[in-house]
Write a structure and sequence with these properties.
Length: 81
């Protein structure tokens, strides 16, 4: 992992993180640590794993594709997720 990514994560420079699978959530927690950064999860199972790890899941894509992810990100930005 590039040092700059870790430094940006630790300084809170990310507005949100998209997690596409439970394994991605576990990898993010292991490599970066869990922060209060909002999470968009791709599906309910990913959201469950992320929440169990301590991530703050604020939106869940209901379909595993670009449009589903775009809708979830839109809800996050609009604050109605």
């Amino acid at each position: 992992m590039p040092d700059q990514v870790r430094a940006d994560w630790e300084s809170g420079r990310f507005d949100a993180i998209v997690l596409t699978a439970g394994s991605a959530a576990r990898a993010a927690a292991s490599l970066l640590g869990v922060r209060d950064t909002p999470v968009v999860a791709l599906g309910d199972s990913t959201a469950t794993v992320a929440r169990n790890l301590g991530f703050r899941v604020l939106a869940v894509a209901t379909t595993p594709d670009g449009p589903g992810l775009a809708r979830a990100l839109h809800l996050l930005v609009e604050g109605s997720a």
